[in-house]
Structure formats: structure tokens, C-alpha cells
Amino acid sequence: MEAHAKPDPPAAQLERRLYAEIPLTRHIGVRVGAYDRATLTLKAPLAANSNHKGTAFGGSLFSLAVLAGWGLLVLKLAARGLEAEIVIQDSEVDYVAPVHGDFSARATLPDGDEFDRFVRTLERRGRARVQVSVVVSHDGREAVRFKGNFAAVRPQEPSRVAIG
Amino acid sequence: MEAHAKPDPPAAQLERRLYAEIPLTRHIGVRVGAYDRATLTLKAPLAANSNHKGTAFGGSLFSLAVLAGWGLLVLKLAARGLEAEIVIQDSEVDYVAPVHGDFSARATLPDGDEFDRFVRTLERRGRARVQVSVVVSHDGREAVRFKGNFAAVRPQEPSRVAIG
């Protein structure tokens, strides 16, 4: 209870938003980690996400990946002062190694030109689509590769596309 | 507390196994529904799985789909007296419509010949791979299409393949 607490950084705001708006994220134990110009890292503990083999459940690994991609877009659009609903449209995921401990998902924006095109399209047409890559790792080793296409729709736009 | 209760059917056993071995399934609220010769249906409530838009979270939809595919293979192999570890290797998922209520995931085996080949390979080589399709629906309408490749490895086999 600090009387003069600094405003929360965007990553802390994202964590609170996840817990408030997507209750399952509390049970997965999602924590927001590093956020920089082009990447966002989320973390989760193995204990809450273990499966029949004592490794991380594939649904939890996917969930952390899709949240990392979604969260990165939320933060990047907010940083440009753009409000938009962001939803996953489709994705491909490869489980390249089992995960024997706590894990993290690092989402990376597409290269600068592609992300700028996405933002310009969103500004001009009120909706746009972009691909985000996410790598889930455990102990520094790559375990899951995720690619997701996300759609962004500005709130004032009539929803002419079925999102999905 | 019936003194002469009938043995649990395989679907009820699967539900208990999910809760015991994959704790997140309790928070998703997974229920095992219909199981027949070639399909398995799992169900989940919207309330536990809602997102920032009040629709079902993409990670929950994926989780129910992968559990339906996995569970169907577990039940079908058990019915043939085959013990094997089954894990997801890769998948593609399309979110074709938002989910505004409770939802179900119906996994379907590949056609008879392909499934028989998978079983024969598993018996002969101790490991095999098979694709399972899952459709997630809400209120009778298709919302998510999932295809997953699963690997099965018999326990006596040395794990010569990195699963994933």
C-alpha cells in the first residue's frame, strides 16, 4: 500500500488483465516476464500443468503460446495508441521435446516492415491480420514451436468478418 | 455407495484418469460424454473457459480438442488390449467461429484401414503415429477444426524417438 506508487508498467497491467478476463490463466499460473520492443515472454510452472507422464500438458503449452502472441499484440498496439480486439484465427504447433519443468513462451513480432503494414492496414481498414511466432522453452531448450495468425478489429468497425 | 455397483464403463474411467493425471482438466471442467466405436465427445462449460470477449478462450478450445483426440486413442487401444503411451506431436487448428456457450469436442478416428495400419505398426514396431480429427462445436454449430498427429509408444520399447 504505497501512497505514491509508480504507475504499473504495461507488462504488470497485462498480467492483471489476463487474470481478470481469462480465469483459466490463474489456474495455469501464467506470469508475465520480459517485454521489450519486439518480444514478450510469459512463464508457467510445471506443477499446475503436468500430464500423465509428469511433463507439461500439451494444452497448457499451447495456451501459454497463444497468450504470449495475443499479449504481445495487445501491448504493441496499446503502445501506438491503437485500440483493437485481437483474436486467434488459426495456428500450427509442433511439440519438439517434452517439458520436464517450469516453462516459458517467447512471442516475437514479424519483422518491422510486416508489422508496420499490419498497423497501417488496421488504421486504414479497421481490421488486419498478422502472424506471430512463439517458442516455448524449458531450461533454455526449445520444446514447442507455435505459429499463429491473429485478427485485429478496431471497436468502431462493424464486424463484417466472422472472426475465426 | 452401492454395494453391487457395476464396473465403471471406459468413459467414466477416462474422466477419473483425466482429473487424476492432468489437474488442469478439473479447472477446464472437462466431462466425458458419448463414446462409441469411432468417436469420443468431451464437454466443457463456458464459465470456466471464458476470455476477454466473453467467448471461449482459444487455449481451452485447443485443450478440449487435444484431450478428445488423446482420449479416443487411449480407449481404442485399451479395447484392443494394447498398452501404450500416447502423446501429441503436432497439430493444426482453425478457429472458424466464436463460441458463446458450453462446448463439446468430438474426436473421430481415421477410417478403418488407416487405424488398423496404425495398430499393426504399433504391435510390430512398438511405436506408431496416427492423425485424429476433432471438431469443437457449440449449440450444434462447428466452431473449431483440429487435426493432430499423435505418437504411441509401447512401454517395453526403449524410447528411440524423441517424442514431439
Summary, kept brief:
Chain A is α+β, with helices and mostly antiparallel strands. Helix content of chain A is 32%, strand content 32%.
Instruction: Name the chain pair whose interface involves the most residues.
Output: A-B, 40 and 40 residues
Query: What is the level-2 CATH architecture name of chain A?
Result: Roll
State the secondary-structure class of chain A: alpha+beta
Number of helices of chain A: 4
pLDDT < 50 runs, ≥5 residues of chain A: none
Layout of helices and strands, plus pairs?
Two copies of one chain form a homodimer.
Chain A (H helix, E strand, L loop, with lengths): L9 H12 L2 H5 L2 E5 L3 E6 L13 H22 L5 E11 L7 E6 L3 H14 L1 E12 L2 E13 L11
Antiparallel strand pairs in A: 1-2, 2-4, 3-6, 4-5, 5-6
